[in-house]
Amino acid sequence: MYIKEISQHVDQEVTVNGWLHNRRSSGKIHFLVMRDGTGFLQVVMSKKVVGDAAFEKASHLSQETSLSITGLVRADARAKGGYEIDVQDYQVHSESHEYPITPKEHGIDYLMDRRHLWIRSERQVAILRVRHAVIEAARNCLNKKGFILCDTPIFTPAACEGTTTLFPVQYFNDTTAYLTQSGQLYNEANAMALGKVYSFGPTFRAEKSKTRRHLTEFWMVEPEMAYAELNDVIELAEDLITAVISHVLKTRASELKLLGRDTKPLEKIKKPFPRLRYDEAVELLKKKGQPFEHGTDFGGTDETVLSESFGSPICVTHYPTKVKAFYMKPDQENSNQALCVDVIAPEGYGEIVGGGVRLDDYELLLERVKSHDLPQEAFEWYLDLRRFGSVPHGGFGMGIERCVSWICKLDHVRETIPYPRMLSRLYP
Known about the structure:
The protein is built from 14 helices and 18 strands. It is an alpha+beta fold.
């Protein structure tokens, strides 16, 4: 039986398999806290019931010893989780000795070097459960809207976002491949076949960034739609974000409480989100005294300052074409502005969605490929999408880790993924 099912077995004898999380003793009684991945449970072991030898052996069990507990379930409001087991018998599978992560304070480097063990802690388990809920909600939302999951390659022949942030990989026959920056380009092809598609998987950016918002390997959900305009993209992003928030609040309230997350700001989030054009956002920054050069992209501090004026995510549109990727479609009314949108999270968590409308004009796309010094031969397949039945289309990418960091209100994105990869972190 799993701990999460304990409420269904009051006054019944059960066996729980797990690990020892904590232990304290009071005379002839041991109070053990067990975990099994689904929850935490208090176990009461009486010397009178289990016998002297078994009781003495339990006195020396240390944190993370694996064991099975058999006993009677009873409700107790004072116990962790509201239930406990009176032990009748137990079995030790493997004793743990000198577990390196203790209740005392440890430095972040110490914990990151032991990330494979740190994820067992109650806080990290809670964060990873929220991550699961975010992914679950995102996929459910898109599936219900008729989007088809299409896998996209991890190995790619060329850049998507920018050639300076690629991880090269040695391929066969002296060929260099690259770890994907995004599934978007392939999703555009998939959308021409299936109409509405999405990919979900890891992406890689060789950015030499040490900020609390950046990882070199992160996961994105990326929907793409044929016959879509900018407003369609924005509305889908709003639907997806609100669906994620609603699902997490409904299913992971206990985890958010454990993390100390005040959920009131999340509960207030409704669509539509406030919308600002890039020029309006720049003016807002100036009013707030934030130094900023018009025509450049927003940095982390800029995004934080912008978000302070709103209690919800905000949609910033129509960035200068020059700061966006080569595939972004220009506005017909002003070719210097791109039909794009970044959704910036409140509370200082930065961009969580980036997307827009893709170039559907063959000649202009070819011109962009050349002007960005991209190898045309590597993009011939992508140009084919404009040669054979091109249509207006668009989509976006939503970063899972940024979302989780915001929803949990974490200080650093490194806690949002089991094994974070950063500029100076490749172990474990």
